[in-house]
Amino acid sequence: MKQYLIFVLLLMFATPAWAQVVVPGSLNPANRANSAVASFRSVTNDDLLNSSDQPENWLMYSGNYSSQRYTELDQINANNASDLQMQWAFQLRALDRAETTPVVVDGVMFVTESPSNVIALDARTGEQFWRYNYDLPEEVNYCCGRNNRGVAVLGDRLFMSTLDAHLIALDARTGTLLWDTEVARTEEGYSKTAAPLIVGDKVVTGIAGGEFGIRGFIDAYDPATGEQIWRFYTIPGPGEPGNDTWADDSWMTGGSATWVTGSYDPELNLIYWGTGNPGPDWNGDVRLGDNLYSDAVVALDADTGELVWYFQFTPHDVHDWDATQIPLLADTEYDGEQRKLMLWPNRNAWFYILDRETGQFLNGRPYARQSWAESLDENGRPRRVPDTFPSIEGTTVSPSIGGGSNWFSPSYSPLSDLVYVTAYDGETTYFIREDEYIPGERYTGGGGTTPLPQDSYHAALRAISPQTGLTQWEYPIQPRSTAGVLSTAGEVVFGGTVDGYFYALNSSTGEELWYVNLGSRVHSGAMSYAVDGVQYIGIAAGNVYYTFALGD
Amino acid sequence: MFRKTLQLGVGIALGFGLICGQADDLTAQDDGAIGTDVSHLNAGENPYTTAYDVRIGSGIFERSCSRCHGLDGTGGERGPDLTSGFQRASTDAGLFNVVRNGVPDTEMRGISQNRGDQSVWQIVSYLQTLSGGMRVDVPGDPVTGAAVYAQNDCAGCHVIDGVGSSSGPDLTTIGNRRSPAELASDLTDPDERVQPQWWMMNVTHNDGTRVEGRRLNEGTYSVRILDESGRMWSFEKRNLSQSERLENSTMPSYSENLSDDQLQDLIAYLYGLIRPLDG
Question: Which pLDDT tens digit goes with each residue over A398-423?
């Protein structure tokens, strides 16, 4: 108890903006709902631009526009993380495994639930303010689970993707539906699962459906009306640069979905977004060429949606290695200079260091087991190992279909200057098959099998240097992990495992600090917030949302 | 008109096996059902079981199911293995229901309503081949095979109908799960793909205790082992000074120990170990 009093006293003298809500005596969890302070307030663009200055709030999916999934809160630190105790648990109604990251605004948590529901909770107690259930049609086309990863907030409004490819706006105080826009047709295989990103006066959002022969895009909508402001197709149309990287009419069904949230650099006014696999996934014969802008990161002018630069990680992908990872933006030293970097542990098992002003490739190294590329050339283009394409009889290649990593968030800590990523050293035997495009049906052209049981392969959380791309340390995980990562100013990094563990490590050394069994797969990324001077760590496991704070 | 009759016939035929979906099926698109006489159908019988149907079913499986269940049905990061029996159904009608409608509140969704019932039955036919359910003739003699089983003390590791040792897989219904070719591979190349629940482990505790046995379960922080004398151990890994995992099979290969005829007979015996037919 004493240490918290000291902490509170320190806060009172240090008085960062967020410490002003500290109410002494509220540190006992039982008393945490006692403060007479109204929750929630309208969120401004300034709040979003300066989200690191108010770490008591978690204002967007990845925490800040740089998508570092890093919190400035340091009440929980490497010295006391072993004292973490569960504060509350909220049972989500659906049985799908939760991939959600909630948003927290002044003591109110907005958490999404599969397939497309939102619940507003008291962030101190887990008790419900309101619930919104979206009414899905009976027939919905989607690939890989009835997922929803979270909301975006601006003003008094929440914005959410729905599984049937709509974008909706809700009143954050009541859960009332304000508008409902059909972004694309679910009958044609489009769906939406990712949290939108607020950029200025726009709601920016992507699309899923890369296994259904869709044509991917990134859209911006008016938060007031739901009307579309611009659309950027991730596959260029006829006459546009890059359309000639698709044989014949294959661009029309080329996938390149955008199913995870992007990032934003306000100084450059650039939106960064990762794009998914070209379609059909495993049969590249019907779409010869580099297949731009699949498996790439695109940098778009935030005002117009026009392409400023792109970098393609896997030209003409035939293994389903989406580049829909979260674009990590970091301002750090590279080659003796302070640089605006983009750091990217790609599903293709290579770690990329890019200059995010220009898209220039700076360096790349494998961070997980891979057998498909001998090296990268000076522009970052892979030199492929011969005979690694899928075949009729099967070709075994690393990484696996699931990749060296996947959609789950990596983290960058400015404190340790390290990137943390959940990595898997797997392999898949890839097959090619003929396929026929039928609207709304799967269009994949093959598939894969795992030569050995999945538990045979090594998995780890890896800490990677943004200067060299080299792994500094790793934390082995058995059997494996599909969890995102959070790092903190308290020198802690949080991750999870498929068998239900949630753990804390020292972010500088990788030393194990704490773990707890939550009973079901940790499939989301942790986040952090504070209310009444208490720092919380939140994480979804299975279909329950849990929070942790320091015990008395 | 015919299509309506077919759908209705299937609906009636499946009785309680199908909970819902018939009303939709009446309006669902047909994918080429032809003028088959369905009046002979009894409860849950699959009308589409020819080799042609299996091939078509395999194609639809690749397109619609393999992303989660793997191209060969052995399971993947999302869906369970379908080659060693089914978790959700034990009859054709039950499988039809699962494929048609999915399993509520799981990631298993029903197949597109654009697919007619014929396609679903063809998938069921293909699924049955995956789990050894499509019966074929085998050359060996099962009675002699039973003697080979006894002479080689297979019961020292395996159980059949509750008799034997449970240090290896239960073989009571192995004929439902494995084809003759797979059984031959199991006997001659047992290390090819050992399921994790049959891996072995040996560990040394900090207090010097050494334990060797079957790795019942393992995570990042702990491991559970069944030793040879049947004692169950659970260790925190931080308390172990040494730990080794063996992913090989503990079963010897019988490619040398048995003649080709003996192998054929043993396969015939094992392949005949099937669960009694329902009702």
Answer: 999 999 999 999 999 999 999 999 99
Contact A454 B67 (CB under 8 A): no
Q: d(Cα A508, Cα B146) in Å, to the nearest integer?
A: 62
CB contact under 8 A, B220 and A452: no
Nearest CA-CA partner of A231 in A281, A289, A273, A264: A273
- The distance of Cα A213 from the centroid of its chain, to the nearest Å, equals 23
Q: Is the Cα torsion angle A466, A470, A473, A479 positive or negative in sign?
A: positive
Which domains are seen in chain B, by residue range? 2-130 (1.10.760.10), 142-193+252-271 (1.10.760.10), 196-246 (2.30.30.600)
Q: Is the pLDDT of residue A2 over 70?
A: no
Best of A400, A442, A474 to mutate (most B CBs within 10 Å, chain B): A442
pLDDT in tens, B62-84: 888 988 898 888 887 788 888 87
d(CA A315, CA A293) in angstroms, rounded, equals 9
Q: Determine contact, residues A528/A537, Cβ cutoff 8 Å.
A: yes
- Judging contacts by C-beta atoms under 8 Å, the chain B residues touching residue A95 are 105-106
pLDDT over 50 (residue A205): yes
Chain A interface, mutation test: which of B67, B111, B194, most A Cβ atoms within 10 Å? Answer: B67
- Residue with structure tokens 């075994």? A396
Q: A468 - beta bridge partners?
A: none
| Mean predicted confidence (pLDDT) in A451-463 | 93
For chains A and B, what is the number of CB pairs under 8 angstroms? 87
A218 φ, ψ (degrees, to nearest 5): -125, 130
**pLDDT at residue B184 in the model:** 93
Omega cis (within 30) before A451: no
Cβ-in-10-Å burial (0-12, 13-18, 19+) of B216 comes to middle
- The pLDDT of residue B51 is above 80: no
Closest partner CB to A450 (pick from B76, B106, B219):
B76
Helix or strand holding residue A502 (H, E)? strand A501-506
What average pLDDT does this structure show over A496-510? 97
B62 contact residues in A (CB cutoff 8 A): 433, 446-447
Q: Is A180 a catalytic residue?
A: no
Q: How far is the C-alpha of B183 from the C-alpha of B26, rounded, in Å?
A: 43
Distance from CA of A3 to the nearest CA of B (A): 29
Question: Going by DSSP bridges, is the β-strand pair A512-517/A202-205 parallel, antiparallel, or unpaired?
Answer: unpaired
Q: Which of A168-172, A514-518, B249-253 has the lowest mean pLDDT?
A: B249-253
pLDDT in tens, A187-199: 999 999 999 999 9
How confident is residue A33, by pLDDT bands cut at 50, 70 and 90? low
Q: Would the CB atoms of B247 and A96 count as touching at under 8 Å?
A: no
What does the block give as tokens for A229? 């402001």
pLDDT of residue A399: 98
Res A35: pLDDT: 62
The CATH class given to the A2-134+141-443+450-550 domain equals mainly beta
Query: Can you give the residue ranges of every domain in chain A?
Result: 2-134+141-443+450-550
Beta bridge partners of residue B233, listed in sequence order? B225
DSSP bridge pairs for B158: none
- 3 state SS of B107: coil
Choose the catalytic residue: A219, A320, A322, A532: A320
Exposed (0-12), middle (13-18) or buried (19+): which is A512, by Cβ within 10 Å?
Answer: middle
pLDDT at residue B3, rounded to an integer:
36
Mean pLDDT of A123-149: 91
Q: What count of Cα atoms within 13 Å lies in the side-chain half-sphere of residue A193?
A: 25
Tokens for A268?
Answer: 């450059």
pLDDT of residue B5: 33
Helix B117-130 vs helix B51-64: angle between axes, to the nearest 10 degrees?
100
